[in-house]
Amino acid sequence: MLFKIILSGHLEFGTDRTFELVMNMFQQRAETYYKNDILLKPVDIFIAEQNMLDVPRLIVPTATEKSWRNTVHLLDTISQYAIAGNIGAWKLDNGSLVEHAFLEPKGDKTAVQSYLRGRELLIQGQQTEARDALSAAIEKFTRHALAYERRGYVNYKLGNINDAMYDFTKSIDIYPHSPEAYMGRAIVRLHQKNHAAAAADLDMAIKTSIPHQPIHWRARRMKGECHVELNEFAKAEFELKLVTNKTFTEGDSNAAWQPRAYYNYGRALFGSGKFKEAFQAADKARHLTQEPSADLLQFVHTAAEKAGVSKN
Questions:
Q1: Nearest 5°: phi and psi at 47?
Q2: Which site among 84, 129, 218, 281 is 20 to 30 Å from 34 CA-CA?
Q3: Which tens digits make up the pLDDT trace of 275-292?
Q4: What residues make up the domain containing 283?
Q5: Apex CA 185: angle with CA 180 and CA 186, to 5°?
Q6: Is residue 131 part of a domain?
Q7: Is residue 29 part of a domain?
Q8: Which CATH number is 295's domain given?
Q9: Long-range contacts formed by 40-48: CB under 8 A, 24+ apart
Q10: d(C-alpha 103, C-alpha 177), whole Å
């Protein structure tokens, strides 16, 4: 049986010595253990100038289960020598996600442990402690793009908007293929009411993610909202039509935002003069919402009048 495989991410090794060790290990194991049945070629992924393994996006249209398993196992092995970064791997069958692997360093290096601790503290809501741990990771390894990105969220939550902007931008400068950093900076720009700049960052979040990641659809929804605010209704309609046509699983955080997506899709359609479709979208939002807001109810009424239809 053949599968479609997607790989995306990077691993930072910090020193020339570790980089050389890992590159040689990759080549040796690929040849000896896996008989070169690996989906990656060393020449395509190892960047000596930055002591980094980089796979911004690799799509393998057809691969065997063995090739998938060999590649994931080898990447997992060398990831434990990294000081920062992660790699995502997706196995698809006819467009459906069959398996997902998330590979990251978990060793005892100070930068690794400080980052992991900071990330966990952020989840627990201990923001000041999280910031300190993430700062410690950055002090140990100044190219820690993920630590900058997570610290950006901490600073945003703490109200340190300028610091958050610095952290997200620094993360992007270090590694420009991470959707989370673009999403974070877009949130800051929305806080600043800069919808055009936010839309640009959200566009990059879309381009650097894949449709099997929740952040991809969150970015599309938010980008559509930005275009509504900018009166760019055709662009908004494009993004929000995709979002509202998507069925999210119960565990996907995007599911809870579908009423808002329908509401703003209705606003985009209304702005384009498509009043009947606007009413249908707004009415869908109303039925999906347990306690519709006054703004939504007013919009349903206005769209119904413009469309010449009766409200149920």
A1: -115, 100
A2: 84
A3: 999 999 999 999 999 899
A4: 231-247+255-312
A5: 95
A6: no
A7: yes
A8: 1.25.40.10
A9: 40/7, 40/71, 40/75, 46/19, 48/19
A10: 16
